[in-house]
Design a protein that fits this description.
With 110 residues, the chain is mainly α. It is built from two helices and two strands, in the order αββα. The longest helix has 65 residues. Keywords: Cell inner membrane, Cell membrane, Membrane, Transmembrane, Transmembrane helix.
């Protein structure tokens, strides 16, 4: 639900940028390294906004994927540690029962 709200908010910002650009019908000149082009201001604004959003989204997905992999790795380590702890506790239980049996049979003067 949170991602839907964020996507909706971004879409609204994109539409507002297009509306703002529609009111400004100026022609802007964009110079590339080897070429030059003339575009309307709304087209330039929409392209720059979209390129920035996509670039940010790609970096965020890379970061989120790394966090998910780390979480998966840590969960596996935790499961192994819990299994080892459980195995250790199971193997120690009979020796504790024997100790308690021996100590229950003896009377202790205090």
């Amino acid at each position: 639900m949170k991602s839907f709200i964020i996507a909706f908010f971004v879409a609204v910002l994109f539409i507002l940028a297009l509306i703002f650009g529609a009111r400004n019908e100026q022609i802007v000149t964009i110079s590339y390294f080897v070429a030059q082009g003339e575009f309307r201001l709304p087209v330039v604004l929409a392209c720059v906004f979209l390129a920035g959003f996509l670039l940010s989204w790609i970096f965020a997905m890379y970061h989120i994927a790394g966090l998910k992999l780390a979480l998966r790795r840590n969960r596996k380590q935790l499961a192994l540690a819990e299994a080892k702890l459980e195995q250790t506790m199971v193997s120690e239980e009979p020796s504790k029962k024997l100790i308690t049996k021996h100590s229950n049979n003896k009377e202790v003067d205090a």
